[in-house]
Amino acid sequence: MLTLAGLGVALVVAALVLVPWQRPPAPRADQLAALRDLPTGQVEHARQFRSALRPGGWAALGVGLLVALALGLTPLGSRLVELAGRPFGGHWIAQAILGGLAVVLVADLVTLPFAAWRHSVLTRYGLATNGWGGWAVDLLKSYAVSAVIGAVALLGFYTVIRLAPRWWWAFGAAGAATLVVLLSFVLPVLVEPVFNRFSPMEPSPLRSQLMELAERDGVPVRDVLVADASRRTRAVNAYVSGLGPTRRVVVYDNLLREATPAEVTAVVAHELGHARDRDVSVGTLTGALGAAAAVVALYLIGSWPPLLRLAGVDSAAEPRAFPLLLALVTVAGLVFTPVQSLMSRRIEARADAHALALTGDPVAFESMQRRLSAVNLSDPDPPRWEYLYSASHPSTVERIAAARAYARKVGR
Ligand SMILES: [Zn+2]
Predict the structure, then answer these.
(1) 208 - beta bridge partners?
(2) How far is CA 256 from CA 193, 207, 238, 351, in A?
């Protein structure tokens, strides 16, 4: 409990110090003014699209939660783990890896119809370009990637439990934090290429301008990488990922095709803001502390006798108790989503402010926001509850209002 309290305090302190809280959204009146300036047809179309996605999205969350609870808080899950280990004489390694993956697979499969429905909506609205074959291949690839990472994590976790039956929660917490850091390093070089091809941006005046921008910003960027996102979507986007030697700025090929050079510059300036403020490191650090705290919390809550009785197991440390742990993680994930979203929105707003200051071009920034919203069919001013629960970025109208506030401040 002391360790959990210590990790909790460290997490709160890290979030308080590293997240730019002193950056409240632009006044509501300015947001509404920005909304009025957007074409009504475009806003309506985006809202129809979002409404079409919404029922399936929430149903997937609800059904996913119900199944996780059904597997974790009844003996069903522990029986599934036993079943998966049976061909191997119930050996603990088979139970840990095959049983664990079987439980995760069942939880994934029950939400599969919702994922398919989502793809059909994306296709109907012309956002998806990959067809059902491409969709299925992506799905299988993501199952394979999850299975590999999951197998390593499960084997590591239950090995630690066997080696240190009394102190597994401490070693497990350290291991979970290490895994988060490791994944931040290797995801861009090992996992992202499974789904997309990345090539250095072709030499062009724009490329030289972007490299010059990065240099002026004091952010060492070896290259701007272009992802072949057009193979599955029409959406435009960009991101930074990786740490240290694996850090990269990635833009979608769609963005280069659809946006003006000034808009691309605004997007890349936003990404440079993430790099400069070390937002990937901040995410990794809070993620690592959160993962460590989660393991200790799982140990404490998962050892509570009434829960163990419900799950039909003797101890949280046996592989048969994995469905119980997964149920707890699922509930925690849903509970902490709004907190993570709030932190993310504040960090994104800081990257926006950085982009405005670096380019000094609020007009291009605003037209980039309009384009993102138009092409990606995002609701420029989404329903409040949905925004508070899960929006990772400020809304389009917030971002436009912030650009206008900047323009007023510098007198442009
Ligand atoms: Zn961003």
Answers:
(1) none
(2) 20, 11, 10, 20
Render pLDDT for 48-104 as a digit per residue (tens, 0 to 9): 999 999 999 999 999 999 999 999 999 999 999 999 999 999 999 999 999 999 999
- Tell me the residue type at 282: V
Q: Is 154 in contact with 97 (CB distance < 8 Å)?
A: yes
Q: Are 326 and 101 in contact (CB under 8 A)?
A: no
pTM above 0.90, yes or no: yes
Residue list, CB under 5 A from ion ligand 1: 348, 351
Catalytic residues: 271, 352
* Integer Cα distance of 92 and 76 in angstroms: 18
Q: Which residues of 4-39 are buried (b: 16+ CB within 10 A; e: fewer)?
A: beebeeebeebbeebbbeebebbeeebbeebbeebe
* pLDDT of the residue at 220: 78
Tokens, residue 34: 């920005």
Alpha carbon of 214 to ligand 1 centroid (Å):
16
